[in-house]
Amino acid sequence: MAATGGTEQELRLEVGNLYLLRNTYFYNDSLQEGYVERVTLKAYKLRLQKTDGTWYIEWMNKSFFEQRYVIDEHLGKLTTAPPLQQEMITINDPTHLSNMMDFSEKCPVCDGDGQVPDDRITSGKSTCPKCLGSGRVWK
Predict the structure, then answer these.
(1) SS3 assignment, position 98
(2) Per-residue pLDDT of the chain (139 residues; tens, 9 = 90+)
(3) Cβ-proximal residues to 14 (8 Å cutoff; 6+ apart), any chain
(4) What is the model's pTM?
(5) Other residues' Cβ atoms within 10 Å of the Cβ of residue 107
(6) Is the backbone of residue 53 left (phi > 0), alpha (psi -120 to 50) or beta?
(7) Cβ 68 vs Cβ 24: under 8 Å
(8) Residue 18 bridge partners (DSSP)
(9) Dihedral sign for Cα atoms in the order 111, 113, 116, 117
(10) Alpha-carbon gap, residue 35 to 18, rounded angstroms
(11) Long-range contacts of range 2-10, CB-CB < 8 Å, 24 or more positions apart?
(12) Based on the number of CB atoms within 10 Å of its own CB, is 126 exposed (0-12), middle (13-18) or buried (19 or more)?
């Protein structure tokens, strides 16, 4: 495994842990956080953080990892993996106001379709001026 560069104990990637990784391939030694999802005999499955704060998954061969990365610091063990950009976070709280009441209703002009008949356009329909194409209006 990659060493920290000192005489201290060598750090190893373990599932469920978050690490500060230094990419030595670039001249500026860029740093990024990495969460270990899986360790196999030949590879690591990592969630790596981009500079904009979002996370992505990458499978990386162990020999490639050892050539390019150094584990600078163990940041801790996480109970859940960092969310990926496409993962939606939902709140299932029955006391939450939006779950109890719906403040919109079907548009009375387009009847919820979002479009109204229009003879001036070749398609024969245009966006509803009341709901702006959503099919819903505020109560």
Answers:
(1) helix
(2) 454 444 444 778 999 999 999 888 766 678 889 999 999 999 999 999 888 888 888 999 999 998 888 898 999 998 888 887 665 555 555 555 554 556 788 899 989 888 899 888 777 888 888 888 888 888 7
(3) 36, 39
(4) 0.54
(5) 21
(6) left
(7) yes
(8) 35, 76
(9) negative
(10) 4
(11) 2/65, 2/66, 2/69, 2/70, 2/71, 3/70, 3/71, 4/70, 4/71, 4/72, 4/73, 5/70
(12) middle
Strand order in the sheet with 55-61: 55-61, 43-49, 30-39, 17-23, 69-77
CA quadruple 13, 62, 66, 24: dihedral positive or negative?
Answer: negative
For residues 136 and 130, what is the distance between their CA atoms, to the nearest angstrom? 9
Q: How far apart are CA 17 and CA 74, in angstroms?
A: 8
Q: Is the dihedral of CA 13, 17, 19, 21 positive or negative?
A: positive
- Whether the CB-CB separation of 9 and 20 falls below 8 Å is answered with no
- Rounded Cα distance between 124 and 117, Å, is 6
CATH number of 1-89: 2.30.30
